[in-house]
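Lab notebook, design round three. We kept the backbone fixed and only want residue identities now. Task for the bench partner: fill in a sequence for the structure below.
Input structure tokens:
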């Protein structure tokens, strides 16, 4: 809704800011290493995910209405990036030391749906395609890799025809 901003840094803190104030709303201190990744959920108002560096390795979940971590999972390696699917309640994370992998998670249970490998150094960059189905990752090995990870929307509305077009079964998936 544009009312909050989250920031993280090498002080191991995730800080939640309100547009209405210059004083932080919360200073979360649960990460044990630098906060390397932050992503707002498009599915749940005020839900936020953050990822910690090498000594932390956790993805932690927060809600702007609470001063405590609502859930976390240890990923086993440094979390470099996080991105939510806009079509389903799933999250992708990229990793550095020591795994250099990409993981697809089902939220909120944090079931690991897929682990993608191929990079030989930290996966430092992540972007989601405009249609929300593919990602591109970039790593310290100077490679870009393209992945089809998220399903298409369950349906789309054609505003010109005012009809529903179902997209089920019309995509390739890693599952």
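Proposed sequence:
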């Amino acid at each position: 809704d544009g009312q909050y901003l989250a920031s993280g840094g090498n002080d191991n803190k995730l800080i939640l800011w309100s547009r209405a104030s210059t004083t932080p709303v919360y200073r979360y201190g649960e990460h044990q290493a630098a906060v390397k990744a932050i992503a707002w959920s498009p599915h749940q108002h005020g839900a936020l995910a953050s990822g910690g560096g090498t000594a932390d390795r956790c993805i932690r979940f927060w809600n702007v209405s609470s001063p405590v971590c609502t859930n976390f999972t240890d990923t086993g390696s440094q979390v470099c990036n996080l991105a939510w699917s806009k079509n389903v309640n799933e999250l992708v994370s990229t990793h550095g030391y020591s795994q250099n992998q990409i993981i697809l998670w089902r939220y909120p249970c944090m079931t690991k749906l897929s682990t993608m490998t191929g990079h030989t150094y930290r996966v430092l960059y992540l972007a989601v395609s405009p249609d929300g189905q593919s990602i591109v990752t970039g790593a310290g090995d100077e490679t870009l890799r393209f992945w089809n990870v998220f399903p298409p929307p369950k349906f789309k509305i054609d505003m010109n025809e005012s009809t529903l077009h179902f997209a089920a079964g019309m995509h390739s998936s890693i599952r």
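Keep this in mind before ordering anything: The chain has no helices and 16 strands.
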